[in-house]
C-alpha cells in the first residue's frame, strides 16, 4: 500500500470513529435519570424547582428544541472549541479542561518515561540472559507489577516514602517532587506489561542473522544489542505502547485521586459525583479525541520504525 | 555487557605467541565444536585442522550438516550455535577463543571479516544500507571508541562530520563491490535491494575493515547463476587487488574450481582430504571426494540416473568408532568400522582414509578404488535401474517424445501472453505520470507437448516465475491466452475441479511451501481432502504416494522440521502428484539441496515421469540440471523469449547473447581441471 492512500484511509476511519464518539457522548445527557433540567435545578436550588423555573432553565440551555437540532447546535459549538458551561458555575468547560490538562499530561508523560526506563533495560537484560537468575527475577518482578493494583501501590509508596521516610510529599501537585510518587506508581504497572513485551520481542530478534553481521564488524556487544537488536524489537513495543496510552488515562484517574492531584481525572470524578453532565460529556469527548489521535500517531511512528511497512504490494 | 580491563594493545592472555613459527594467517588446530541436544552433545566439528596463508584462497566443501558453517563461525568466535570444546584457532598468531572480548573485537574490526549466506538475513532491516557500511568503517577507524550514544546518533553525542565522512566512503565501497548508482542507493533500505545487491552490500561491509582474511559462508548459494558469476568475479578481483586471503565455504564444487587455490573436504565434522584444487578435483584420493564429484549431473548421460551417495550425513551423537563415511563408502572394508582412519600426509595435501585406498591397492583385490562412486548396494540398484533405463530408452526410440511441430495438440499453449504489473510508487509519482510499470512477461508464445520436459531458464527477474504462475492459473495474463489441453486457463478461483487436478506444483523451498504444523501424511493428503476423497481411499493413496517417492510409512507422522531437505522435497513432490496431474510445474526443485541429494531427487523426478507419463515445466537457474532433465529449453530475458529449441542445440551452440552469457556463467569443474 502506498503512503498517500494509506494516510487518506487512516484519517477517514479516524473521522468516522470521532463522529460516532460525538453521537454517543451527546447521548450521555439523555442517560440522566429523570428530567435533567429538574434534577439540576433541584440540586442548584436545594429545593423542588417550580414549573416556571424549569421552563426558564430549559430555554436558557436550549433544551426545548428538537434533539437533532440540539445535537447540531452542540456539535457546532464543540467544533468551535466551546464545550458549554458547567451546571454549577459559569466556568466554560473548555477552560476547566485546559486548566486540569497540564497536570494530567505531566503525570502521563512522566509515567511513560518511568515505564520505558524500567521496561527497556529490564526486558533487554532478561532476554539477553535468558533462563538465568536475572531473567527469572525480572519475570517475577513483572508478574508482581502486573498483578498489583495501582492505588494499592500508590498508598504503599505514600506510606514508605512520604510518611515514614519523608523523602517526597504525600500529595498535591505543582512541584517535581510531588510528581515522583504518582509517576512511579502509574509507570510501574505499565512497565510490567512492557517488560514482558520487550523481552519476548527481543528474544525473537536475538537469533537474527544481521546481529552476527554486526558482531563480525567488531562492534561491542552493547551496541549490537541496544542499537541493532533493540531497534527491531521496538516495533511491536511501540504499537502496544499506543494501546497502553488509553489504559494510562484510566490509571491517571485513580492515581490523581490517591495523590490528590487536581488533574483531568479529579475533574471527571468530581463532575460525576455532582452529576455535572456537561463536564462529564466534555471530558469524555476530549479523552476520546485524544485517544484516536494518539493511535493515529502511533501508527505513523510504526511505519517510521519499520521501513518495510511502506512497501506492501511488491509485484516481484 | 562486557567490561574489559584497560590493557595496552592485546591483553596479557594474548601475549603468548603462536607455538609454531609458521607464516599462517589462520591456523585451525584440532578444532572441536559441540551442540547440546536433548539426546546429548552432537559433535558438529570433530577435530578439524587446516591453515590459510596470506593471500591464499581456500575452499571448504562438503554436504550440509558436515560442519562447514560451524567451523567458519567458530573461527571468528561467533559461538551460536555450538560450543568450542577443544582445539585452537589462531588468527595472525592470536588465539581467538582465549582472547579477551576486546581483542576479539579488534580482530574482527581489523584482521578478519565475514560474509554470510542468506541475503535476507545479512542486513539489518531497520537501517539504511549506507549506515550499515559506514558503521563498519567507523569501527575499523576507532575500534576503542565505541560509545553507544555515538552509534545511536544521539544529538550532541555523535559527531556529524565523522558520519558524513564515513558515508562518503561507504558510497565508494558500494561502487567497488558493483552496486550501480551508489550515491542514490546509499540511503535505500535493505528491502529495496535485490538478493544479489544485498550480498554485495554484505561484501562491502566485510571489506570496510580492509581485512587480511575474508571468510565467506556460501556467499552466492542463494543467487541465480548470472548474479553468482558476477559476484564471484568481483570477489576474485577484490581479494587479488588487496592480496586478501579468503576462506570460502560452499557445497558447489564448480565455485571451488572457479576461485580456490586449495580445498578442504569436510565430512561429518572431520577433514577428509586437503590439497590443491586442480589435483583434488581431477584426481581425488578420498572416496568421499570422488563420490561428491560423481554426483554432478554434468557427469551423467542426459535423462539417465545420476550416481548418488546413498544414505545421509550421520548425526554425530556420542562416541562412534571408525570412519564416519564407512556406511556410505564404496571402498569400505571391515577395519574401517573399527578404528579411526589415520590422516596421511601426501606431498600436496592430506587424506584421511585407510592406507590401502590412499596409496593405491593392487587391482586384483577387488579394486574398489577404480570403481569409486558405485558401491555394492548402489551397484545393485544401478543394475536394476539400468535395465529399466535401457527398456525405456528403447521405448523412447520407438516412440520419440512428441515434438511441438507434430500434429498432436500441445498440452499447454501460450499465445502472445503478456503480464504487466503496476509497480508500487508514491501518489506523487502517479500524479506526475512517472509511475513505473513492470512488464513481467512480454508477448510470449510457446507450447508444451504432452510427455515432454520444457526447461525455462533466465536470470532472476526475467519473468520465469511469472510465466509459471500464468500456466498454473495463479496469475491471469494482461493480454493473450493460456490454454491447457485446448481450454483457456481461468483464474484459480473460477476454475473447475478438473483443471485443478491437472496441474501440480513443486516449489524451491519445501520448508516454506509446506505447512509446518501438519504431519507428513496430512500435508500429502491435503489436496485429496480438498477434492473430497473419503478416509480409507485417502489413506491408501497417501501410502502409495509415499512409496512412489521413496519414503516409508514411518515418515507419515513426522512433522516437516523433523525431515531433511531432500526428504521434504520428496513430500512436496508426493503432494504435487497426489491428484494424478498431467502437468507438474517444477520451480527450482533442487536448488536448495546438496549435490548428492539433488542427484537423488532428480532421479526420482525422471522415474516418476516415465511411470506416470508426466509433462514437466522445469524452472531452474542451474543449467546443469536443465540440461540433464529437459527435452527443450526456452530462454527468457526481460519477459521475452529470446531463444527456444532442443536442449543440446541451445546449450551447445547458443545463438542469442543472453543464452551464451547464461552458459558462460555456470562455474564448471571442467574449465579449471584442464
Ligand atoms: S576409511 Fe574406509 S570407510 Fe572411510 S573413507 Fe576410507 S575406505 Fe571409506
Automatic annotation (TrEMBL), chain A:
UniProt cross-references to PROSITE patterns, sorted A to Z: ABC_TM1
GO molecular function: nickel cation transmembrane transporter activity
Keyword check for Membrane: yes
Compartments, as annotated in UniProt: Cell membrane
All copies of domain ABC transmembrane type-1, residue ranges: 101-298
TM helices/strands, residue ranges: 12-31, 107-128, 140-167, 179-198, 233-259, 279-298
Membrane topology according to the record: Multi-pass membrane protein
InterPro entries membership: BPD_transp_1_N, MetI-like, MetI-like_sf, Opp2B
Cellular component aspect of the GO annotation: plasma membrane
CDD domains per record: TM_PBP2
Gene3D superfamilies: MetI-like
SUPFAM superfamilies, per database record: MetI-like
Entry keywords, A to Z: Cell membrane, Ion transport, Membrane, Nickel, Transmembrane, Transmembrane helix, Transport
Family listed: Belongs to the binding-protein-dependent transport system permease family. OppBC subfamily.
Official protein name in the record: Binding-protein-dependent transport systems inner membrane component
Organism: Natrialba hulunbeirensis JCM 10989
Automatic annotation (TrEMBL), chain B:
Segments passing through the bilayer: none
Key words, A-Z: ATP-binding, Nucleotide-binding, Transport
Keyword Nucleotide-binding appears in the UniProt entry: yes
Region (Disordered): 1-20, 378-412
Classification via Pfam families: ABC_tran, oligo_HPY
PROSITE patterns: ABC_TRANSPORTER_1, ABC_TRANSPORTER_2
Sequence ranges assigned to domain ABC transporter in this UniProt record: 26-293, 412-663
Compositional bias segments (type: Low complexity): 385-398
GO molecular function terms noted in the UniProt entry: ATP binding; ATP hydrolysis activity
GO biological process: peptide transport; transmembrane transport
Family: Belongs to the ABC transporter superfamily.
Protein name per UniProt: Oligopeptide/dipeptide ABC transporter, ATPase subunit
